[in-house]
Amino acid sequence: MFNFDGVSLQNIVVHNVGNKSKEEGVQLSKTLLNLNDDLIQDLLLKYFLSSFKTDAFFQFGHDSDVNLNEVYHYVDQIFENPDNFYDQSVNIAKHLYEASHHNKIKGGEFYIVHFTDCIVDDELADAVGLFKSENKDTYLRVYQQNNNFNIDYADGININKLDKGCLIFNTEKEHGYKVCIVDNLNKSSQAQYWRDDFLRVKPYENNFYHTQNYLTMCKDFVDEVLSEEQEVERPEQIALLNKSVEYFKEKEVFNESEFEQEVIQKPEVVEAFREYKEQYKEQHKEEADVELKFEDFEISSNAVKETKKKFKSVLKLDKNFSVYIHGNRDYVVKGFDEERQMSYYQLYYNDEK
Questions:
Q1: What is the pLDDT of residue 290?
Q2: Within a 10 A sphere around the Cβ of 207, how many other Cβ atoms?
C-alpha cells in the first residue's frame, strides 16, 4: 500500500521516444523541465500518480544478475546521486527505444520524474517514475472574443488517463527494488513490451501476490479441469468458485488443508486439484521465475477484492436467460424435457424480491 499525500516532485524531464522498427528515433530534451507553476505541478502529480491503486508489486529481474537489468542500473545511479538524473534519463529513453521494436507500438512523450516523500508499506522513500503517453484526446476550447464566444480545438493529454507508468521505490534494492506498474494499453502481445522488454520485471512475492495467485489458480482449475467437457455442470463450477472467494473473504490466514476440507471437500476433486497445483507451480516458476507459495500466508483483502472481479457466477442459457448463482448449489437442479427435447433448470427459493 502506498500514500502520495505529501509527495514532492523534485526533477522532471520529457523526451520523445518513437518506434524503432519505423526508425522514428528519439528526441531528447537538452535540459530538465523547469516548473514554477504550482497548479501545473499538481496536475502532473495527479496525472502521474492517481492510476496507481493496486497492491500488486514487482521487482527487477535478470537471467544472471539483476545489476545487468538496464532500468535497474540506471535508476540505481539516480538514487545513488540525484545529480545523475538527466544523464540517466537519456540512457533510459534510449533503452525504451531499443525495446519499442514492434511495428504497432506508438511513439510518444516519455517522462522521467524523481519524487520524494512517498510512503510505501509504511516506509518513507523517494521514487523514480517512468511514464509514457501514447494517445492524444481532442478538446474543445470555448473562449470570448469581441463580445462573442468562439470555439476551437486542440489535441492534448487527458490527465485522468495514464497510458503507461512505472514507479520504482528506493527500498529493497537487494531484491530488485519495489516496483509498481500501470499499463492501460496492455490488450495485446505487442503492448507487453513495457513490462517484459523494457522493464523486465517479475512479480514481487508478498501476501497480495500469494492471495491473488491462489485464487487465480482456483479459477484456472475450474476452467481447465472441472469443465463441461469433463461432465461437470456449470452450477457446480460456479459453486466452487463462490466457495473459494467466500473462504478468502472470511479468513485472515490461508491454510491449505483447511481450504481443501471446507471448499473442495470431495476426495476425488481434492486429488485432481493437488495434481493441477503441482503442474501450475512448475509452469509458473518457468514463466515468472517465482517460487509459488501455497502453504500458510496472510490473506490480502485487497487482492481478494481485485481478483474476484474475474470470477463469473453467471449461468448463461442460450441467448434467452442469464442466471446469477451466489448461494446454495442444491437450490439449482438440472433436468431434461423429453417432449420438448430441451434442457431446463429448476430454481428453489423462499422470497421473491
A1: 61
A2: 18
For residue 110, how many other CB atoms are within 10 A of its CB? 27
The band of 291, judged by pLDDT with boundaries at 50, 70 and 90, is low
In a 13 Å sphere around the CA of 150, the CA atoms on its Cβ side amount to 6
Contact by Cβ (8 Å): 60, 201? yes
Cα separation, 5 vs 118, whole angstroms: 8
Q: How confident is the model at residue 315 (pLDDT cuts 50, 70, 90)?
A: confident
Q: Are 264 and 218 in contact (CB under 8 A)?
A: no
What string of DSSP letters covers 53-89? -----EEE--SS-GGG-HHHHHHHHHHH-GGGHHHHH
**Quick one: how far is CA 258 from the chain centroid?**
29
Cβ proximity of 186 and 195 under 8 Å: yes
In this prediction the pTM is 0.80
Give me the amino acid identity at 307. Answer: T
**Grid coordinates given for 265:** 471437500
Secondary structure (3-state) at 92 = helix
C-alpha cell at 233: 455442470
Task: Quickly count: other Cβ atoms within 10 Å of residue 237's Cβ.
Answer: 23
SS3 160: coil
DSSP per-residue letters across 263-297: II--HHHHHHHHHHHHHHHHHHHHHH------SSE
- Using the structure block, give the residue that is written with the C-alpha cell 490527465: 159
The residue behind cell 514481487 is 204
How many whole angstroms separate alpha carbon 90 and alpha carbon 28?
7
* Location of C-alpha cell 527494488: 177
Judge whether 93 and 25 are in contact, CB under 8 Å.
no
Listed range (4-13, 128-137, 242-251, 329-338) with the worst mean pLDDT: 329-338
Per-residue pLDDT, 293: 65
User: How far is it, in rounded angstroms, from Cα 203 to Cα 60?
Assistant: 9
pLDDT at 182 over 70: yes
